[in-house]
Design goal:
Structural class: alpha+beta
Order of helices and strands: HHEEEEEEEEEEEEHHHHHHHHHH
Radius of gyration: 36 Å
CATH topology of the largest domain: Serine Threonine Protein Phosphatase 5, Tetratricopeptide repeat
Shape: globular
CATH class of the largest domain: Mainly Alpha
Number of domains: 2
Length: 394
């Protein structure tokens, strides 16, 4: 408060004019209005701030939804992952999006089963085939892909795993992965973008084909002759349809057992293209790649106009290269698949596998020619690093 100056009498004795009164009254009114408006302005500001906070909180909850880090991973639509499978009949790879934004792409014949899913880990088993993984960066879970000969561990990256009975190939497109296993050098290998590792194992005796001269370079149109007693070729009536139902449910081992020892050799005669492809699936995915050859060759030879003939040739090439160790025959099959026509995704895969098959067969010139064609058609292809390696480029 301002102290009054002395003597006070001098101030009291000063005359109070009308001008002075008006000035004093205006001051009182101004001070009164300021005091009254201060609470109103304060409450108005608080109300606006509260409304803003409410809006931000509501927007965050609405846009974020349930936290992707809580609970197990699911498919994007909320269903359980369970078993993911791409039948051999599909023309294009199957995309499956997960609840955390990751994507899994399955090539024809691939089969993937969930083993574990928690807040911090996600594990799957790749039983067969080729799968492209695009794991969301910055996610809370460590991914593990079990593929027989090795285990692949990642957090957030893009990579491909291709499993066959005798080998596993891991190719990294982006980021870093760890590959562990007894057959991996030093039991662990760190791969970065552009690097590829192949883990091989000796073929099992049950998967080794008979020593026949024609098996080294089989004609895609030839159908092997199977000799068996007539009684063995007669299937029990109940088994004739049972294997189809089991195959449709993905129970390939059970379907193979329902067919019996000579079941596939019996069924290939007179079967439709659909049944032949299903028989090939049953043979491959139950661990009997040799038995998949006959139905696939029949699709190519007897149904060349079918849109799936190219797919059958591609699958035959994979069986010959990965399951039977016949690179020369596989090269012929991949070339046939390209000639018959494939979907966009499989076209790139087929041309890359053609380079690999020719290189393994010792046809270095043919591998380099196929690699040049691959680079021309797919200059930024996913398999560029592997193609160059197979073609002998530095």
């Amino acid at each position: 408060m301002k102290r009054l100056q002395l003597p006070l009498r001098r101030h009291l004795d000063e005359p109070i004019t009308e001008v002075t009164v008006q000035r004093m009254w205006r001051g009182v009114l101004e001070r009164r209005g300021t005091v009254r408006n201060r609470p109103r302005a304060l409450w108005t500001g608080l109300a606006l701030a509260g409304a803003a906070l409410t809006f931000v909180f509501t927007w965050f909850v609405w846009t974020a939804g349930p936290s992707a880090s809580s609970g197990p991973l699911t498919l994007a639509d909320g269903r359980e992952i369970g078993v993911l499978e791409a039948p051999v009949t599909v023309q294009e790879p199957l995309d499956r999006w997960l609840s955390d934004g990751s994507r899994i792409r399955l090539a024809a014949g691939a089969r993937l089963s969930q083993l574990e899913s928690t807040n911090s880990s996600f594990a799957v088993l790749l039983s067969a085939g080729r799968v492209d993984f695009d794991v969301k960066k910055g996610g809370p879970r460590r991914w593990s892909i079990e593929c027989g000969l090795a285990t692949v561990e990642v957090v957030g990256t893009r990579f491909t795993v291709d499993r066959a009975p005798a080998r596993v190939v891991v190719e990294v497109n982006e980021g870093v992965v760890l590959v562990r296993g007894e057959r991996v050098p030093d039991r662990v290998r760190k791969l970065t973008a552009g690097e590829v590792i192949e883990i091989s194992a000796a073929l099992a005796e049950t998967d080794t084909p008979p020593p026949t001269e024609n098996l080294a370079t089989p004609s895609p149109l030839a159908t092997p002759t199977v000799s068996a007693p007539a009684a063995a070729l007669q299937a029990p009536p109940a088994a004739q349809g049972a294997w189809k139902d089991l195959a449709r449910r993905g129970q390939y081992k059970e379907a193979y057992q329902a067919l019996g020892a000579q079941g596939i050799a019996r069924e290939v005669t007179g079967s439709s293209a659909d049944d032949l492809l299903s028989l090939a699936d049953v043979a491959r995915l139950s661990g009997h790649p040799t038995d998949a050859v006959a139905p696939l060759r029949r699709v190519i030879g007897e149904h060349p106009g079918d849109a799936r003939a190219g797919l059958a040739a591609f699958t035959l090439g994979r069986v010959e290269l990965d399951g039977l160790g016949q690179p020369a025959g596989a090269a012929q099959s991949f070339a046939t698949a390209i000639r018959l026509g494939l979907g966009g995704g499989l076209q790139e895969d087929a041309r890359a596998r053609l380079v690999e098959a020719r290189a393994r067969a010792g046809d270095i010139a043919g591998a380099r020619a196929a690699a040049e064609e691959y680079d021309r058609l797919f200059p930024g292809g996913h398999h560029r690093a592997a193609v160059r390696r197979w073609a002998g480029d530095p």
